[in-house]
């Protein structure tokens, strides 16, 4: 699996192994993958299994670990508190103008492009600039200036070896001594440290997540040590920028290849945000059920963390029961979204196809007659793009806010068409799982509607 991970194919390989050998497979000497949503609570719920060593291996250190790498449940719970404050409903309300400004900037920049556009590249820049606004009160202008310093590529450059090491975390400690293994991480670390120090000195006029991570909202508490703030900043950028960008790029790929869905979403956007209205004002998002269906269906087919994160049964202790299986201490575990989402026992019909309507049917928002005569299965417990439980994705509400704003802004303004002659099968073939994903740049042409 480590070798397959190096090529970015672990998500498809795991699914292939599950199809061949069943719902529980052994993917390494001490590693299991479950394709079984019935163990969701036992594995990821409040009394579930702690995080695994994947992150320790990936970042090659056992000290000053970022939130997702903290294997001690009590310590993890404590470290998550400022993150939870940063993504509370009240905090998200304060971030709304920034989402809107950046999404509208994206549309303005797209309007200036002529001919073929690599939509995925602009979406990457949007996601990066926005996360820098959130993590550091600003400082990045990739959309405006382009990526002259190659920072986006630096962020992804270390991913293949990191994916390899994720399966053999002990090797990470040795790899950390090899200069070629750590150069990208060091460059990213130095970049984020500079942004963190600047944010600490300068403060911010508008609230950002740093406001909460540095305890500015709790004046009687001292800020955490600088090293923790730098680590949190890197985490925000890595966890927040690539994932959302991956989801949005896949969304436009799915829409561009399914004109019926595009038209239906466009009609909904036009209804709630006619020309002249700001599509990034979230006042109507709650009522836009087709938009929610499109986003869910995209994240089902192309989850931005395709293999999910890892858990590990603690070495000291008794082992756990997952369903009818006893799992001994020290075993690392996966519940991979790519395999669960593409299992016809969880989602049918059109399991491997883009069909947003399934979400409307499942929520009772479409006439039940539409499912008469078809074999309809919809298992919400098997839908895990943001994982589940107390250690799930804490940034989920922000990711959805961004995805909704950009989807509405782009669909209101343009007809997005795949570049003539570009083979759509290249998208799935080029969709690689390095924990973060790597995907084709999505060549499109944009046709302004007004
Ligand atoms: C579509 C976009 C996103 C997807 C699909 C996604 C998915 C995930 C997944 C699968 C995890 C692992 C959870 C686990 O171990 O159970 C995670 C963790 C995390 N995500 Fe996201 N994420 C997204 C966007 C964001 C954004 C915008 C942020 C903002 C900074 C963010 C911050 C985090 C953090 C801090 C963690 C660690 C949580 C913990 O260990 O307690 N994510 N995410």
Automatic annotation (TrEMBL):
UniProt keywords, alphabetically: Heme, Iron, Metal-binding, Monooxygenase, Oxidoreductase
Membrane-crossing segments per the record: none
The protein's required cofactor(s) are namely:
heme
GO MF annotation, one: heme binding
Annotated Gene3D superfamilies:
Cytochrome P450 (1.10.630.10)
Q: Which SUPFAM superfamilies match?
A: Cytochrome P450 (SSF48264)
Chain sites annotated for binding heme: 393
In terms of Pfam families, this protein maps to: p450
Q: Does the keyword Cell cycle apply?
A: no
* Pathway it works in: Secondary metabolite biosynthesis
Asked if the keyword Metal-binding belongs to this entry, the reply reads yes
The cross-references to InterPro entries, in alphabetical order and at most eight, read: Cyt_P450, Cyt_P450_E_grp-I, Cyt_P450_sf, Cytochrome_P450_monoxygenase
Which family is it part of? Belongs to the cytochrome P450 family.
Name the record gives this protein: Cytochrome P450 67
* Natural source organism: Trametes pubescens
């Amino acid at each position: 699996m480590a070798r397959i991970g190096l090529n970015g194919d672990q998500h498809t390989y795991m699914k292939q192994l599950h199809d061949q050998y069943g719902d529980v497979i052994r993917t390494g000497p001490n590693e299991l993958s479950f394709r079984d949503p019935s163990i969701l609570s036992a594995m990821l719920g409040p009394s579930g299994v702690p995080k695994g060593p994947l992150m320790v291996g990936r970042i090659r250190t056992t000290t000053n670990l970022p939130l997702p790498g903290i294997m001690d449940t009590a310590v993890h719970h404590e470290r998550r508190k400022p993150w939870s404050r940063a993504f509370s409903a009240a905090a998200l309300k304060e971030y709304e103008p920034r989402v809107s400004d950046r999404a509208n900037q994206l549309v303005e920049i797209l309007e200036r492009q002529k001919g073929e556009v690599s939509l995925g590249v602009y979406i990457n820049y949007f996601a990066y600039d926005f996360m820098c606004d959130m993590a550091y009160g600003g400082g990045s202008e990739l959309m405006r200036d382009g990526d002259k310093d190659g920072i986006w590529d630096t962020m992804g450059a270390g991913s293949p070896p990191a994916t390899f090491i994720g399966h053999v975390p002990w090797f990470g400690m040795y790899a950390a001594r090899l200069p070629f293994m750590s150069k990208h991480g060091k460059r990213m670390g130095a970049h984020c440290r500079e942004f963190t120090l600047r944010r600490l000195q300068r403060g911010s006029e508008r609230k950002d997540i740093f406001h909460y991570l540095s305890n500015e909202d709790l004046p009687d508490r001292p800020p955490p040590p600088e090293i923790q703030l730098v680590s949190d900043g890197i985490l925000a950028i890595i966890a927040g920028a690539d994932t959302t960008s991956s989801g949005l790029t896949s969304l436009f790929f799915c829409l561009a290849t399914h004109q019926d869905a595009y038209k239906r979403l466009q009609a909904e956007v036009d209804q709630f945000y006619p020309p002249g209205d700001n599509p990034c004002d979230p006042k109507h998002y709650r009522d836009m059920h087709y938009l929610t269906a499109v986003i869910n269906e995209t994240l089902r087919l192309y989850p931005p963390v395709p293999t999910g994160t890892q858990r590990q049964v603690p070495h000291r202790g008794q082992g756990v029961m997952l369903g009818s299986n006893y799992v001994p201490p020290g075993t690392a575990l996966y519940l991979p979204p790519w395999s669960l989402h593409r299992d016809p026992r969880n989602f049918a019909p059109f399991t491997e196809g883009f069909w947003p309507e399934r979400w409307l049917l499942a929520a009772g928002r479409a006439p039940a007659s539409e499912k008469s005569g078809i074999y309809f299965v919809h298992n919400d417990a098997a839908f895990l793009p943001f994982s589940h439980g107390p250690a799930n994705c804490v940034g989920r509400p922000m990711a959805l806010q961004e995805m909704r704003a950009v989807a509405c802004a782009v669909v209101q303004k343009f007809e997005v068409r795949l570049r003539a002659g570009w083979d759509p099968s290249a998208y799935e073939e080029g969709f690689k799982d390095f924990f973060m994903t790597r995907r084709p740049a999505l060549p499109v042409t944009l046709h302004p509607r007004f």
